[in-house]
Amino acid sequence: MDTQFLHAYARILLRVGVNLQQGQNIRIAGEPIHRDFMLILAEEAYRAGGRAVKLQYSDERHALIRAACLDARYLDYVPGYVVPELQSYLDEDWALLHVDGAEDPDMLAGADTSRLAAMQRAQSAVSQFFTLQVMANKLTWCVAPMPTRKWAEKVLGPESDGRDRIEELWKILIPTLRLDRDDPVAAWSDHARMLRQRAEALNGMDIDRLHFVGPGTDLTVGLTPRSRFIGGSATSQKGTAFMPNLPTEEVFTTPDFRRTSGKVTCTRPVEVLGVPVDGMSFEFENGAVTSFSARKGREALEKFLGMDPHAKELGEISLVDEDSPVNRAGVVFHSILFDENAACHMALGNGYPEAIADAGGLDEEALRAIGCNISLVHTDFMISSPQVSLVGITRSGDRRELMRSGKLLI
Asked: What is the pTM of this model?
């Protein structure tokens, strides 16, 4: 895309995404392949009044080398600067913007999953205090896409016909990001309002549990009396509105992690510990996964479920209409940022305190006591399709049809 477009896109991410404030600091994270766009973001952040911009690059090639070569004695080592750095983001109210789009989505496909899991477990344990604060919206944050060639080829196939796959992927992404509208900022404001209204309608039903039924799926997810559906824009603890994900099509809540039962078949592939996993199914009893299968990536999924005692329990349940622009695109994006906005999904692992009434400031023990899962991980698994229906059972025992053939009725 031309420079003028990328600058306009950057301004939308800063204004709609993190809603950067005058004099605020911002961390912009991404892979080295995103360097040019990250510099555009930095320029626009300074022009918008940002005080300090930190560009943070992570390289999966380095992760691959580390997983292959690191002495096993150091797999759980995390440098001492990590905690003070994360704490400074909290103390100084930084905005966090993550540019999503892997240089190579399959980079870690052949890596040793045991070593990857050990490294991620150590990093997650050290940074969990920060993750919980971000999930509770202590800061403004946003994840947004930037296409890469190998990602585009994974979605659309190799460039064997002479067409530029990045340009083709951009043509698909632009409508999902509402960049084709005359006023994208207003379009996102209207969309956020619709999602909030959908969440309010759900909250007015006093739902006790959700029941998903479809091919290979008969899943009941219990909510807590304090579970609240939210969606669209969020509000930081300082009162700043922001959009955590661009795009976003979901309304979601934090269920009671002790009340999941039944079986579910996943409807889209997902990346687990950096490894592509597909054809997943799970069975739950008393809130936890008791058995699972996968056609591809089973070993990575097994390592993920063993990351900590609560990785097998739910932290999120999300409702997405089959008519979402992401789903209408008609492709599997091989990116959780998009694929989670194409279908209803559940997340194994950490729950969102913001989706529980009056949970602000509660510690881990108190959150668990009211049913909010606390874990070192959080990964979404898509569970709906045109063959899946959903009923909500209220606390008074009424049954409310919420979704028919993948279409939300609210």
From this structure: 0.92
